[in-house]
Amino acid sequence: MRLYLLRHGRSPSAAEAGVAKDFDRPLSDLGRADVRKAARHLGERGARPVLILHSPLQRAFETAREAASAIKPAPELEAFAPLANKLSAEDLAGRLRQRCHDLSEVLAVGHQPQLGELVAVLSQALFNLKPAGLVALELKDDGSASFLWAVNPEELPD
Fold first, then answer.
1. pLDDT (tens digit, 9 = 90+) per residue, 121-144?
2. The model's pTM
3. N or C: at which end does the chain have fewer Cβ atoms within 10 angstroms?
């Protein structure tokens, strides 16, 4: 299975956004643009995720929605609490494998440090995952994974 990991796009602080909780922080306009750029890149690489799992936090939901609008055909969106940056990378890996075992390609939208730690645990690769950064992994049946590629938005053309 191909697993694509997308860190949520840039978002203002809770105070800047005028919200009381970190949970409710929205994406900034730049964050939206970066996410669309990353999603277009995913399509250019031939990716066709059938499902986008996202953290329940507002900025991750908005990231998933932006990405889905740029991916054809548009994948289904599903809030996935394990992506809320509270579980260990090992626990998240198990939950993702369980949820996605019968799917060919999935995009998971979440947060740092959880996504970066997940990449390291699954593939032993290290990558500085910036907002709207994207990583591609191949999950194997034996529980291992291969690091395929990674990109941050500033590396992509506008």
1. 999 998 999 999 999 999 998 888
2. 0.96
3. C
